[in-house]
Amino acid sequence: MKYSIDLSYQTPQEWATQVVANFDDFLRDHADCERKASAMAMSFIAKCPDKTEIIPELIETAIEELEHFQQVYELMQERGVQLKADMPQDTYMRDLIALCRSGRDDRLMDRMLLASIVECRGAERFKLVADALEDPELSRFYKTLWTSEAKHGNIFVKMALNYWPEDEVYKRLHELTEQEGEICSKLEWRPALH
Q1: Which residues contact residue 68 at a Cβ distance below 8 angstroms, ignoring those fewer than 6 apart?
Q2: Backbone region of residue 103 per phi and psi (left: phi > 0; alpha: psi in -120 to 50; beta: other values)
Q3: Positive or negative CA dihedral for 96, 120, 10, 172?
Q4: What is the CA radius of gyration of the chain?
Q5: Which residues contact 45 (CB under 8 A, 6 or more apart)?
């Protein structure tokens, strides 16, 4: 069942053309994003150990994101690409987190819903990259990631539905999706996931 909603802004194909032209730089950024995604899933566990209904899925998600990091890192090794010494601040994520309301429960809901939106954005962009890549093996890899990210987009909404009424979750999800679209539409195009 699909729990996530459609993104309000569609990334143009030209973005993927730039990514393919600077693919090694994209791989570095992609590796960073997978590390952060794994850490984010674990941070939910650290912040709400009492929410036992969602901990098994959060663990699975964290492991899957770490496996994605491992796969991207192996690609980087094959191509002679090193990880960045420092992870630069992701302005997209900074701007999204600034949308979170205060208050423990409101903030937790917003973080879960933003996690869903970020995963959906990743799925959209991985599909664009998969379609733009001429190397069939790399294209297959990004198609696999696209389906995985789409699944994660559903997981975080489903988690939120454990704790808040459906109408409240989807009202806020629509609000955040519109705001994410505005943020995303203003991002500078570069060989990075966001």
Answers
A1: 34, 37, 145, 148
A2: left
A3: negative
A4: 16
A5: 55, 58, 59, 62
* CATH homologous superfamily of 13-185: Ferritin, core subunit, four-helix bundle (1.20.1260.10)
Find, among 117, 112, 122, 95, the residue nearest to 164 by Cα: 112
Token digits of residue 97: 């987190």
What's this model's pTM, rounded to 2 decimal places? 0.95
Q: Nearest Cα to 145, choosing from 87, 71, 56?
A: 71
CA distance 27 to 64: 18
Segment 148-179, tens digit of pLDDT: 888 888 999 999 999 999 999 999 999 999 99
Contact 177, 136 (CB under 8 A): no
pLDDT in tens, 66-83: 999 999 999 999 999 999
